[in-house]
Amino acid sequence: MGEREDYPARRVGQQQKEVFVKRFMALLALLALGISLAGLVGAAHPCGYNWPGVYRYQYAVKVVQGEGNPPGTHPQDPLSPGFYFTSVNIHSPWRCQCMCFRFKLVIAGHFGNPGANSGWWYPVPCLRPDVVTEYDGEDFAVMITNLPLFYEGYFVIESEDELDVVGVYTVTSTHSPCSQSVAMHEERVPARRIEICGNPHPGEAGEAGEDE
Question: Please, are residues 63 and 155 in contact by the beta-carbon 8 Å criterion?
Answer without folding.
Answer: yes
